[in-house]
Design a protein that fits this description.
The protein is mainly β. The chain has one domain: Neuraminidase (6 Propeller), CATH 2.120.10. The chain has 2 helices and 22 strands. A hairpin with a 4-residue loop joins strand 4 and strand 5. The longest helix is centred in the first third of the chain and has 12 residues. The protein is globular and about 55 Å long. The N terminus is likely disordered. This is Glycerophosphoryl diester phosphodiesterase. InterPro entries: Phytase-like_dom. Keywords: Signal.
Length: 389
């Protein structure tokens, strides 16, 4: 179950940082207003060992780890008390080395005054009622990074979670305790290599190019699931945004084409701004000195396509207060940036996926921390108020 200890005590301190109250714009360009960091070597206390199959350069962290790392944030939802639920992804980069990484939703409380992040608890994802019909890694039906690659998350009004997976790609529905509520929902016509290997079907998507973004419509009727890579036969660099009806529990058949700036890029997250607009992270695979394209776009539905407008260049954020100890220009030079959430009409938060222990975007040879930043925008996003509650 989610641990709630300390949430109420932190609410007062957090209110000024995550208020949804609108305010007049105070900046001329996107500006850093908050910075907090969770050290790379942060683990779930008293949990299980992990990383026994990890190989390669682990940047000073010997494997296996004594506990489960709190890492790899690949999706985020805000809580009314000022904390956030974040999704840890599949583990250590692939199916073969992640069988002892337990899939979890972590609950975090950033303190931008101190620049730190408190971990308030979390829940582990399970399938106690055997909705998954193929063999799982563990007999106790606790889900691992060898079973699913979870990369995106949305929460419904009843507290349950829908999660997007890359191995299917599947949509997975969990209750507020992390228990799977139904069979994984496949995307018609799209098969990842991991599913192809299990079923004998022909793969139509590349590995790790499944559901990277999952947006809930403001009216709560639909989910919009965005693939990270192009489907076989589609134009290079064109991604499918797929509409899923929560009332019927099935895809509607409607989809929209999102154009990457070039086919070598990928998306990191997609959330709703209103019924027709989405906030989408687009990135290259570089880190540190090779990081170039790390951007946030506003994408709007127009017929069967999405037209996009640059909102924030994450490699060029004004930092007049030198937050985080950085200079007047703040950069977010991480290989994978997979979390964005709207805090109020003028402010967003962005988190990186640190791919623990592998990514080294801040300094060569040093495993990246998980960083949580807030950015003030020069103009209101004009979001649907229902996504802020």
């Amino acid at each position: 179950m989610l641990a709630g200890a300390g949430v109420l005590a932190l609410t007062v301190a957090l209110t000024g940082n995550v208020s949804v109250a609108s305010a007049p714009p105070r900046v001329a360009v996107p500006t850093l207003t908050g910075f907090a960091s969770l050290p790379a070597g942060t683990f779930v206390p008293g949990s299980e060992p992990s990383g026994s199959q990890v190989t390669g350069n682990t940047n000073g962290f010997p494997v296996p780890f004594a506990d489960q790392p709190i890492q790899g944030f690949s999706g985020i939802v805000a809580n009314p008390d000022g904390s956030f639920d974040v999704l840890s992804d599949n583990g250590y980069g692939n199916q073969a080395n992640s069988a002892d990484f337990l899939l979890r939703i972590q609950r975090l409380a950033p303190s931008f005054r101190s620049g730190t992040i408190d971990v308030l608890g979390g829940l582990t994802l399970t399938d106690p009622d055997a909705y998954v019909t193929w063999p799982l890694t563990r007999a106790d039906r606790v889900l691992t990074g060898a079973d699913f690659d979870v990369e995106s998350i949305a929460r419904l009004a009843d507290g349950s979670y829908w999660i997007g997976d890359e191995f299917g790609p599947y949509l997975l529905h969990f209750d507020r305790a992390g228990r799977l509520l139904g069979a994984p929902v496949p995307l018609p016509g799209v098969v990842a290599p991991e599913t192809a290997a299990r079923t004998g079907a022909t793969a139509t998507a590349r590995s790790s190019k499944g559901f990277e973004g999952l947006a809930k419509s403001p009216d709560g009727r639909y989910l919009y699931a965005l693939l990270e890579g192009a489907v076989t036969g589609d134009p290079a660099g064109q991604l499918r945004l797929n509409e899923f009806d929560l009332r019927t529990g099935s895809y509607t058949g409607k989809r929209y084409a999102y154009p990457l700036e070039n086919p070598d890029l990928a998306i990191g997250d997609a959330i709703a701004i209103d019924q027709n607009r989405f906030l989408i992270i687009e990135r290259d695979g570089g880190q540190g000195p090779t990081a170039v394209v790390k951007r946030l776009y506003v994408a709007e539905r127009r017929g069967g396509s999405l037209t996009k407008t640059l909102l924030v260049d994450l490699m060029n954020i004004a930092n007049p207060r030198n937050l985080g100890g950085f200079g007047p220009t703040f950069t977010f030079p991480f290989q994978t940036i997979e979390d964005v959430v709207i805090l109020d009409p003028h402010r967003i938060a962005v988190l990186n996926d640190n791919n623990f222990p592998f990514s080294t975007g801040r300094a060569a040879g040093v495993a990246d921390n998980n960083e949580f930043i807030t950015i003030e925008l020069p103009a209101s996003l004009r979001p649907d108020r229902r996504i802020l509650t």
